[in-house]
Amino acid sequence: MSSRYLAAFGLLFAGQLPSKANLSQDEKGFELTSFDAVDPDFENIKFIYSGSEINFAALPFVSTPDEPIANILAPPPIISFSRQKADIETPTNENDNIVVEHWGTRPWEIRMRGLLIDVENHHYPEQRINQLYQLFEYNGVVEVSGTQFFDKDIASIYFKGIEITGIQGYQDTVQYSLQARSIRPVEFTLLNP
Question: Which pLDDT tens digit goes with each residue over 99-110?
Fold first, then answer.
């Protein structure tokens, strides 16, 4: 798997922690520090829109009757979040002085980068690309759930852009990038100015 990430993103990726233990030495001797196992569910993401649902789950994923592997896009994307303040500034007659008249917070800008892999047949992942394309083509608000969204109070998003790129040497793997923005319901904004 790491060779696919190297080909797609130019970086090595391991699905495990680099080390779950750290050995250090000080004047008293050696000390072994261990780290708890990582909860793989923190990467799981669910998009719900127009009666459809798309899930991203960490590999390895085992198919169950309740949730077949066809409903899972794995591995989960690498997500970056950025946010800025919106303000109205008025310069004064003095140097380097401004009056900030109003400020607020802009929505989150979200970038999701990942791989679509046909782990069942090792062919071009046409079905998974179509699932992602249908998600992007939906022109409405998409409900989202997952730890990385919950901790930033993001419950819904809309998509602004998509990029799908093949990876040389891997016919069963395609790289994608989705650009989205967080959005809050209008009634929330009106009730909580």
Answer: 888 888 899 999
